């Protein structure tokens, strides 16, 4: 029997996007009128009520670091902790640069890649309803911030059109500041490989520090054939690199990379480059900035070298302050706290024992913080550098542009009002607060056609098709990208004996079949045959990534009297005081790789062994489903057929509970608040 060419999918096709309002007569991009009373953040965003723990320390060299923004430039509309938008950040950077000038120290602003695949602002272009490529409208907004150093992420390389957009537009916008030391692209006009950005940047900071910077992507192999990634171990042997490291006048190396900074992470190739530099320059400070694993992390490499990783999705802004880089250089600035930590792992032996290390004593001191991405945080730390109000003309213009772009892309078009928050991992699997309990209901309600509505159905999907928590409040077109962007279609096998169909879930979970965790290896077996799949996953590269989104593993709900709010609780090589806003821990519960929803099964759940059921599953796992069935004695083949999938928007539209408060949805506080389990 062949897998049916899905009637399910065709029933869903028409539901995939909301109706576009007629906006052809509007040209928000031409609207440049500024007023001083523009509402800060996005009009529908919230601010937090919790202040940071205290002022930042400033040293000789200070760095603001973003990574893995993945299109979240509007901020988190439905989460208080992360309500700032890119315009607020633009204003903040201007104030911090002024503060650095006032303190007579250096400030660098750094980003380490992954600008695509995560939110509607980047992902709602290059789709059926809006031509072009992913990131086409979000990248120009991102570019309003004049970074000092940037590097490329794997999400710039899955799809050739995005890689070329990065090469032709983004890299040109930043010129010598965009570093892709091991990433090349085939120039379509010459056929030759060229570096997407520059291999390195040697420059003098405003205060005279001589910096040699590199930008190194981890050993990524899932890229399209438009680009070429040189493994770090090979890159460090190239003569240009050796020459750059041998440069006589370098006060510090700045090594940025879309690359984990944790020394235990198997995909961390920053340490390969670190070792290569140390072999030539045993005593020059090396400051590293990483990303990709979406966590807050800080690692000590040796007494002159540390690495900072600054989270994901415009939830985190990283801060590193360093003093003592050049003993003849600037002293610590006065009137502000200064870095006090030696580069050694707090309370234990350094993790760097197996690495090469510097050979002379160090007088360097370090300070790291992870800032929550909200207005209160930005205003708090900008204080003292604000001659006028916080908002800058440019920041306001960016905010306004984001609002206009959201409108242009119809991102705020409402499907329904989510009456509560459902999360991926903050509540036990399939409990009331678990998104999989919602999916159980939504799949059962929407994956059905009239002709076969009376047949019992088992619907099997991989849990990995959900990308982010579903927050209480408006479920709009934007949310459909944020929560479940994948375009896998539903296929089905009719009339499978119940005793076979009912064993598929267990067979998938236990067997050697593609699963979320298998996908987490660096190349995760994707090909360009189905870019819609791979472009949407940011591969977790190690198991430690899987358990460290906003909290650390092993969490159970700890109920305690506290005025703190739920959020990041980070432990790193300097200890537990890195989070700028003190939070309570959001519990973490693991969940399986696959799950099943039952439709039209008898109320008592009993079916005879031979009773025919329709077995429905995502095309993405069709091969595995067929393998399991045949392993159980069935005889099925797989007929691949890809179409679109959009059951949550459909469910939001058909559920009376979700429609009750349209269009004025009550918005919740965010993920981790009011957990029901
Ligand atoms: Zn990422
Ligand atoms: Zn990445």
TrEMBL record:
Putative 5'-nucleotidase C-terminal domain sequence ranges: 421-625
Domain Calcineurin-like phosphoesterase: 62-295
Keywords: Signal
InterPro entries named in the record: 5'-Nucleotdase_C_sf, 5'-Nucleotdase_CS, 5_nucleotidase/apyrase, Calcineurin-like_PHP, Metallo-depent_PP-like, Nucleosidase_C, Pesterase_C1039
Region: Disordered, residue numbers: 330-357
SUPFAM superfamilies: 5'-nucleotidase (syn. UDP-sugar hydrolase), C-terminal domain (SSF55816), Metallo-dependent phosphatases (SSF56300)
Protein name, per record: Calcineurin-like phosphoesterase
Classification via PROSITE patterns: 5_NUCLEOTIDASE_1
Domain of life: Eukaryota
Organism: Aureobasidium mustum
GO cellular component labels: cytosol; extracellular region
Biased composition (Low complexity): 348-357
């Amino acid at each position: 029997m062949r897998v049916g060419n899905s009637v399910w999918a065709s029933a869903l096709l028409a539901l995939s996007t909301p109706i576009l309002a007629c906006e052809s007569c509007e040209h928000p991009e031409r609207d440049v009128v500024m007023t001083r009373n523009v509402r800060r953040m996005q009009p529908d965003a919230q601010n937090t009520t919790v202040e940071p723990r205290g002022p930042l320390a400033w040293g000789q060299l200070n760095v603001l670091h973003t990574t893995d923004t993945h299109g979240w430039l509007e901020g988190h509309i439905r989460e208080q902790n992360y309500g700032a938008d890119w315009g607020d950040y633009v204003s903040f950077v201007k104030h911090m640069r002024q503060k650095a000038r006032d303190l007579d120290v250096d400030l660098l602003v750094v980003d380490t890649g992954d600008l695509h695949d995560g939110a509607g602002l980047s992902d709602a272009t290059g789709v059926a309803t809006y031509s072009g490529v992913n990131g086409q409208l979000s990248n120009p907004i991102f570019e309003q911030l004049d970074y000092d150093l940037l590097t490329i992420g794997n999400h710039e390389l899955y799809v050739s059109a995005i890689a070329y957009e990065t090469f032709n537009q983004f890299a040109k916008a930043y010129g010598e500041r965009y570093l892709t030391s091991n990433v090349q692209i085939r120039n379509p006009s010459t056929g030759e490989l060229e570096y997407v950005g520059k291999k390195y940047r040697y420059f003098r900071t405003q205060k005279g520090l001589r910096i040699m910077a590199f930008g190194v992507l981890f050993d990524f192999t899932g890229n399209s054939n438009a680009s070429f990634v040189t493994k770090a171990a090979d890159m460090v042997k190239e003569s240009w690199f050796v020459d750059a490291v041998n440069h006589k006048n370098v006060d510090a190396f700045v090594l940025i990379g879309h690359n984990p900074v944790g020394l235990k992470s198997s995909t961390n190739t920053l340490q390969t480059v670190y070792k290569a530099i140390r072999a030539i320059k045993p005593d020059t400070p090396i400051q590293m900035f990483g990303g990709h694993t979406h966590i807050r992390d800080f690692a000590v490499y040796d007494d002159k070298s540390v690495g900072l990783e600054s989270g994901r999705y415009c939830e985190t802004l990283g801060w590193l302050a360093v003093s003592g880089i050049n003993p003849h250089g600037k002293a610590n600035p006065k009137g502000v706290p200064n870095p006090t930590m030696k580069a050694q792992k707090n309370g234990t032996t350094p993790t760097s024992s197996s690495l090469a290390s510097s050979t002379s004593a160090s007088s360097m001191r370090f300070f790291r913080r992870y800032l929550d991405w909200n207005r209160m945080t930005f205003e708090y730390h900008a204080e003292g550098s604000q001659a006028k109000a916080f908002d800058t003309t440019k920041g306001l213009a960016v905010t306004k542009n984001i609002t206009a772009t959201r409108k242009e892309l119809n991102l705020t078009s409402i499907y329904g009002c989510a009456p509560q928050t459902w999360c991926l991992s903050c509540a036990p699997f399939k409990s009331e607060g678990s998104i999989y309990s919602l999916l159980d209901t939504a799949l059962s309600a929407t994956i059905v056609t009239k002709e076969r509505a009376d047949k019992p159905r088992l619907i099997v999907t991989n849990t990995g098709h959900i990308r982010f928590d579903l927050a209480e409040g408006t479920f709009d077109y934007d949310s459909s990208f944020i929560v479940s962007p994948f375009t896998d279609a539903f296929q089905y096998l009719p009339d499978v004996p119940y005793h076979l169909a009912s064993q598929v879930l267990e067979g998938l979970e236990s067997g050697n079949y593609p699963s979320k965790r298998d996908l987490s290896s660096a190349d995760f077996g994707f090909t360009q045959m189905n870019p819609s799949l791979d472009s949407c996953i940011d591969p977790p590269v190690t198991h430690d990534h899987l358990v460290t989104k906003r909290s650390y593993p092993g969490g159970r709900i700890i109920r305690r009297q506290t005025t703190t709010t739920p959020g990041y609780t980070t432990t790193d090589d300097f200890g537990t005081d890195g989070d700028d806003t003190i939070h309570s821990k959001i519990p973490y519960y693991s969940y399986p790789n696959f799950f099943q929803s039952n439709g039209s099964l008898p109320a008592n759940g009993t079916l005879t062994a031979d009773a025919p059921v329709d077995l429905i599953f995502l095309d993405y796992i069709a091969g595995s489903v067929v393998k399991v069935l045949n392993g159980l004695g069935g005889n099925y083949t797989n007929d691949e057929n890809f179409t679109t999938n959009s059951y949550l928007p459909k469910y939001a539209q058909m559920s009376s509970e979700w429609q009750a408060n349209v269009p004025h949805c009550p918005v919740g506080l965010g993920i981790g608040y009011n957990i029901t389990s």
